[in-house]
Amino acid sequence: RLMERFLMDGFRPQQLSTYALTLYKHTATVDGKTILVDFWDTAGQERFQSMHASYYHKAHACIMVFDVQRKVTYKNLSTWYTELREFRPEIPCIVVANKIDADIKVTQRSFNFARKFSLPLYFVSAADGTNVVKLFNDAIRLAVSYKQNSRDFMDEVLQELENFELEQKEEDVPGQGQRGSTESPRPS
Amino acid sequence: MMCTAKKCGIRFKPPAIILIYEGEVKGKSRQRIMPVRNFSKFSGCTLLQQRAEQLKNNPRHKSYLEQVSLRQLEKLFTFLRGYLQGQSLAEMMEQVQRERTIDPEEDLNKLDDKELAKRKSVMDELFEKNQKKKDDPDFVYDVEVEFPQDEQLQSCGWDTESADEF
Fold this sequence. Notes:
The structure holds two protein chains of two kinds.
Chain A: H1 2-7, E1 14-16, E2 21-30, E3 33-41, H2 53-56, E4 62-67, H3 71-75, H4 77-87, E5 93-98, E6 109-110, H5 112-116, E7 121-123, H6 132-149, H7 153-162, E8 170-176
Chain B: E1 4-11, E2 16-22, E3 29-35, H1 45-57, H2 70-84, H3 89-99, H4 113-130, E4 154-155
Antiparallel strand pairs in B: 1-2, 2-3
Helix pairs in contact in B: 1-2, 2-3
């Protein structure tokens, strides 16, 4: 639903059932340059406790969402974060507290997970739209700057490989979410 | 037919769904009684859903029930079933309340599809209630609100005390 709220009319997800993910394509402008963004939505893959490795491959930013009404989704963040860092040790990651419309008081609370790993924390609501556009625009900006300045060993290797392939223009920004909160087969 | 629904409830004896509404004459409340026939106290969830749908789509009542949600009708049928099974009103209210609230500790990844669908409907209900749609007059695409995370904030209560965990 966060994706839908951000893309509004422009959203046209592609279901890639083989990889159990929903892909959203989006065009954004950063510093006057037009870039293509691929949003990868987990589409309930979290059910299997772990993502397929291809999911992390060439991702340039990660958005981790939890539901402020469900402690379980918050507690699971650490597991997902560990897995993310195994594959992508350096990419920017944003933590999102979704559904603040359910209880606005949560915005007055501290969430140590984000603090512990020095990750930015966004309070958002897919329902009323609070901070959704800001979240995605910031994520895109982070992804672009990461891609330009990346020091990741894996990225350098990939860069080498890419020289033999067509030039790559996409940014991959996976929206890693908790099932039932913002991501679902009917992407919420 | 101009009809503004005011209240919709259930009468147990004899069973009927009752709608209080305002018709064409402004300020004048009217009442519509829609009898419930052949209702079994053994009706399962699916049957309750069907009853709600049938009533909502009934050609005679349809236009009156437009503003009444399917979920509410379903809930009323659930009350009727509870009554026929001898439950007290307090018990029924508590049960409905329990079913319509989110258990923060429950792991939805461990539920079967049917139970998951139920939880999702609870979440959808909240979403729809709070949703700002594109066609709403006060809709704003980019809503930015700052929520500063300074040191003085009270903990969310979900973090453990130990330093190793968050």
